[in-house]
Write a structure and sequence with these properties.
about 60 residues, about 0% strand, single chain, mainly alpha, 2 helices, about 90% helix
Length: about 60
Amino acid sequence: MFDWIFSFFHLFLLLSIAAYALYSLFQGNIFRFGLIAFLLVVYYFLVLHKAVRKEMRRRREHKDR
């Protein structure tokens, strides 16, 4: 149960930050947009990428059965 809450919290937080980055871009603050986008990419590779690849592998193996 806690995993679902954690997952949805992270999803909401990431979408909110991405929306704020787009808002900054449309306001003309290109530096803020670039910084937020860069940090989101860094966060993905440092924290989420390993788990995403693991889940993709698990689903692929489950599909092959």
